[in-house]
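Justification of computing resources. Each target in the renewal requires a structure prediction run like the one illustrated here; the chain below, 133 residues long, is used simply to show the kind of job we budget for.
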Amino acid sequence: MNLTYRTNFLLKMGIPLILFYLYFFHSSSTATLVAAIIATIHYGAYGIDIHKKGNWTKVNLEHDQRTRSNAHFAGYITCWAMIFLLLIGSVLILNTDIPLTFPNLIAYTILASFVLRWIIRDYLNFLPLAEEG
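Resulting structure tokens:
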């Protein structure tokens, strides 16, 4: 679904708002605060870039066939990496004295899979642009 740059920006600004809400009302974790500040800086820079180019009312064509196939490929790699990490992590938890519980292992693996998927997807999407310049 292709949205205007303004709608896409407003939807993405929900991420820092949710992180700040979690920090102030649920957990006073420093990691949550750092993630909220980094997300705010990232999406603020994204908004400034949109404003400089004057694209607020234009349609953002970020979901064409190439980007969709790159996202599916990144999800495929991430799925297998997550299965591998959960398998290795569960064996290590059972056989060693690692101070990690199974819920923590699952949470860290899910977080790592999101980061890995975003890195692979963005790398594949911006690869042809880097080769042209």
